[in-house]
Amino acid sequence: MSVDPTAPPATSSGVAAPGARSSIGGHTLDRVIGSGGTGVVWAGTDAKGCPVAIKLLRSGGSAAARDARLTRLRAVCAVTHANVATMLQVGSEGGRDYVIMERIEGQSVADWLALQPAPREVLATLLAAGRGLAAAHEAGVVHRNFTLHSVLRGPSGRVAVTDFGTALGQLDPAAEKTTSAVAVAAGRAQVGDGVAGRPPPRQQHALLDAALSQGGVFVGTPGYMAPELFTGAAPDARSDQFAFCVAAWEAFSGQRPFHGESLDELARAPVMAAPPGAASLSPGMHRVLARGLEADPARRWPDLPALLRELARAEPPPRGRALTLAASVVALACLVTLLALLRC
Predict the structure, then answer these.
(1) At residue 188, what are phi and psi to the nearest 5 degrees?
(2) What's 108-169+219-327's CATH class?
(3) pLDDT at position 194 over 80
(4) Per-residue pLDDT band at 259 (split at 50, 70, 90)
């Protein structure tokens, strides 16, 4: 039996798919440990038996787009920083593009937040991730898809940004766009499992987190994308800054600063109004993040280090207000479970 090693795993058990390719680039594939819009991550070992993470990138797009992605990824190999997951090798074998990275045992910051860490720990974690992102920018590398899921936190507290440059391209605003959760055509969400005019539970949340693609090419995560990316602008350090501020806002308030029931609404939200005030953000933190969330890239912070300096001076919110995200996650899980039981 032949199994596509870049296909999403059938289960979340972490067990390798039977029949999957056993090695690539001289590295052994052991078991699937993650899957997302850009590909599937395997735990593996190198020729010396040392642990590595192997990301098999999803195919799609033109040969030129794939070549450009590989070029971007090779540039990441030159980035050396404690808060950046080290990229060891980039290549293509048997028609599969792959990335070999250091394996960091731990969890994504998105999952770590559910443990209800102290606000100062959250701030320190965000600042560390920001330093990693800034180091990449200094080397001319743009992340292109920064989210709370692309930051890992190890047992020792080390924070490392991963998944640099894996998005294949940028949007053509005139062409059709699709997401893994909803299909969008002519600005209207067409939901596969809902009744017309009555979206299924968590449709909006799914839209924010869905993998956005165009012509089979992954281009980003809508809830973190800067408004200019929806109109076809190329990702750059300023759009990374916007995504970082969305992630920081979410980490402290439990919700994204902008919402929309379709991709068009989501794209227009930062243009139509400034991010709302949030009781879970201190005034200083709100000021810093709101500037990074400006719809006009020229009005954002001049660079990420400038933003980080101001963010470090901002007081984190009181502990009770910083736990909103964890409470929201638990509440959503309970709601989904209840709805599932009611459908039985």
Answers:
(1) -115, 130
(2) mainly alpha
(3) no
(4) confident
